[in-house]
Write a structure and sequence with these properties.
single chain, alpha+beta, Nuclear Transport Factor 2, Chain: A, 2 domains, 5-stranded antiparallel beta sheet, two-stranded antiparallel sheet, 5 helices, 47% helix, Bacteroides conjugative transposon TraK protein, membrane, transmembrane, Conjug_transposon_TraK
Length: 205
């Protein structure tokens, strides 16, 4: 009888140990699953899917401070493209200048008004002149805010009988603003001015 009781006690202890180990294993497994799920969710939050040409493309989401130099340079280059790449078409000129206005403050508007008053755009249309700008380099100082920049590029102006290559150097400052459909980088150009815009060479067509 005592042997049976001893066996029952031993079996109970073994069963209790088994359930303790099973519970501990289950808790460890659940903790591991929760950890892996958390890692997966964190990784998914660091990804952005962009729809381009009907295809979903994955892009990595980064802190804005990590992308400031790249975004700033693209903002500046895009602005100069809209402001200086022109065709002999009043609607195209208006559309490009309107888009450029979203990238800058009143200093950009003043530069446009000065060109307009000097009949710059009227002469482009009347003379069937086309103009494109090509970026050479852009320097941006991101150590101090607002960010000072200097743009170096060349304009190629095609007239009826000649093609003129002209240097273009501008400077200004970048201020942070909210992103929008018209200003995807979230920068605004301030105190913008043209430092140099002179002919480099002229070729006959």
């Amino acid at each position: 009888m005592f042997t049976k009781a001893k066996n029952i006690d031993t079996a109970f202890k073994q069963t209790r140990s088994f359930f303790i180990l099973l519970t501990a294993g289950t808790l460890l497994l659940c903790s591991f699953i929760v950890y892996k799920c958390f890692r997966m969710v964190s990784g998914a939050q660091g990804k952005i899917y962009v729809l381009a040409s009907g295809k979903a493309m994955e892009a990595l989401a980064e802190e804005r401070k990590d992308n400031i130099p790249v975004e700033a340079k693209d903002h500046i280059a895009t602005f100069h493209h809209y402001f200086f790449t022109l065709s002999p078409d009043d609607k195209q000129i208006l559309a490009s200048i309107t888009q450029a206005m979203y990238f800058g403050d009143g200093s950009v508007k003043r530069a446009y008004d000065n060109l307009k008053e000097s009949n710059y755009y009227s002469n482009i249309i009347a003379g069937n002149v086309s103009q494109i700008v090509k970026t050479d380099s852009i320097s941006v100082n991101t150590t101090e805010y607002p960010y000072y920049f200097r743009y170096y590029g060349k304009e190629e102006i095609t007239r009826a009988t000649t093609v003129v290559s002209r240097s273009l150097i501008t400077e200004g400052y970048l201020r942070n603003v909210d992103r929008s459909d018209n200003n995807s980088h979230g920068f605004l150009i301030e105190r913008w001015q043209i430092l140099e815009n002179k002919d480099l060479n002229v070729k006959n067509r």
